[in-house]
Write a structure and sequence with these properties.
Layout: H1 5-14, E1 21-24, H2 31-39, E2 46-50, H3 59-62, H4 67-78, E3 87-91, H5 97-109, E4 114-118, H6 122-127, E5 136-139, H7 145-151, H8 155-163, H9 172-188, H10 192-201, H11 204-221, H12 231-239, H13 241-246, H14 263-275, E6 279-285, E7 296-305, H15 308-315, H16 319-323, H17 333-345, E8 354-357, E9 362-369, E10 372-378, H18 388-396, E11 401-405, E12 410-411, E13 415-419, H19 426-430
Parallel strand pairs: 1-4, 1-5, 2-3, 3-4, 6-8, 10-11, 11-13
Antiparallel strand pairs: 6-7, 8-9, 9-10, 12-13
């Protein structure tokens, strides 16, 4: 399936300041597939080494740090030449810490080579102090809604979305089709295997089975925490996700994971889930100023899951809820919609969104973009009455505000209303 991240990989390949690449992201978002597909574009192809499936390769990195000694051994063992026109892929590199550490020597001693690494829990290694200055990083996410459209054969609808340049009402025939496809996306999500299954067979039971297998894989990973005392806490936190999201006020509470739980006891477990790319953390800010992360309120944050399909399966919401025009957002409506929005925003941003609140008001997301802090309000339906955006506007005077809802595309001079299914186009529409 076509993935938009291929453009970032192509830019990395053509960069004069290229370093070894780390492609990070949650388990089963398609990292291995995209690197192998990308490797086919190289004149001398690619050499693929998986340190989990082929542990014998680890010994080459355990005995020396000399890249010029390691390369001939890799070539001999793989039976393939490694040249300046080859993509050398290290998969599941977290299983070989010496190979991960060797990336900096590839950077220093053989910068002309194309080296790319991936792994399921690389976020944990990076959080533990890996010298990121010696590598390039690309974050890979689940498939976005536009990618989903391409996968299910709706290229014309995607082209229509991407051609919109002014905030004018979308004709009903296109609006209804896009809304229907978005309902499907809320059910399936963006994990490539689930999307492929839906595209080929549209079997809801099979999609559920695939998503359940991924959730089980996440739970198996949770047993890999180096401090075994944290493993039960990680499971308590993970199992609290539905109850955290069901509350009207979605500020994360450790006590919702286990009665009496305190931050100092459970914080390491939550950070593990975030660094493993299983959960996403969005902080509140005390004021919307640049740079936005300088104003984080570290005591107030929300959690989201990396993929809306996995969230739907984790919560246990049936497919019919999403297919029924009157019931798409009935259960956990705010949580699903906010999760969808965050999932759609992240691939186009270098800074994670925040949210703003005061004693009585809350704006769902603040996005740092092009020297601005842009407020985003998220509405699960077509009712757009709110006081929070008005309060925010009175206090901070933003140039323009964005509302994501089920109402048609429009601009009233202050608020740009974007239908939820057009989330991916917000940057072009914002600067119309």
């Amino acid at each position: 399936m076509k993935r938009d991240v291929i453009k970032q990989l192509a830019a990395w390949k053509g960069s004069n300041r290229r370093k070894p690449l780390i492609l990070r992201g949650a388990r089963q978002v398609g990292k291995t597939w995209i690197l192998r597909e990308f490797g086919r574009e190289f004149a001398d192809g690619f050499v693929y080494i998986n340190f989990e499936k082929e542990p014998a390769y680890r010994q080459f990195f355990e005995t020396t740090k000399d890249v010029n000694r390691i390369l001939p051994q890799l070539a001999l063992a793989s039976g393939k030449r490694i040249t300046e026109r080859t993509l050398l892929i290290f998969d599941e590199i977290g299983e070989c810490p010496d190979a991960l550490n060797a990336l900096k020597y590839f950077c220093e001693d053989r910068p002309e080579l194309y080296v790319a690494a991936a792994g399921s829990l690389l976020g944990l290694d990076l959080a533990n102090g890996f010298p990121v200055g010696k590598v390039n990083l690309i974050e890979m996410y689940p498939m976005t809604f536009p990618e989903f459209l391409t996968a299910i054969g709706e290229d014309a609808l995607r082209d229509y979305m991407e051609a919109l340049a002014v905030p004018e009402a979308i004709p009903e025939i296109f609006f209804s089709r896009l809304l229907q496809r978005m309902r499907e996306y809320f059910f399936v999500g963006g994990m490539p295997e689930a999307v492929a299954s839906w595209s080929e067979r549209q079997d809801a039971g099979e999609v559920d089975d695939i998503l359940q297998e991924i959730l089980f894989a996440y739970e198996r990973d949770m047993g890999k925490h180096p401090d075994k005392n944290d493993v039960p806490k990680i499971h308590y936190l993970w199992n609290s996700v539905p109850s955290q999201l069901a509350r009207e006020n979605k500020k994360f509470l450790y006590s919702a994971a286990k009665q009496g739980a305190r931050a100092r006891e459970y914080e390491n477990g939550l950070n593990w889930l975030v660094n493993a790319d299983i959960l996403k953390k969005v902080y509140a800010v005390t004021r919307p100023r640049l740079p936005i992360d300088a104003y984080d309120d570290l005591s107030a944050f929300k959690i989201y899951m990396g993929d809306i399909g996995l969230l739907r399966k984790k919560v246990g919401v049936r497919r019919e809820i999403f297919m029924d025009e009157t019931g798409i957002f009935t259960e956990f409506k705010g949580a699903f919609t906010e999760n969808y929005v965050l999932q759609g925003l992240l691939p186009g941003l270098s800074v994670t969104p925040r949210y703003w609140k005061d004693a009585r008001h809350e704006v769902d997301f603040l996005v740092q973009w092009e020297g601005e802090i842009i407020p985003f309000e998220v509405k699960a339906g077509s009712s757009i009455k709110t006081t929070s955006m008005k309060r925010y506007a009175e206090q901070y005077r933003p140039r323009r505000m964005v509302r994501l809802s089920l109402k048609n595309l429009s601009f009233d001079g202050e608020v740009l209303n974007i239908p939820l299914f057009l989330l991916s186009e917000w940057q072009r529409l914002y600067y119309f």
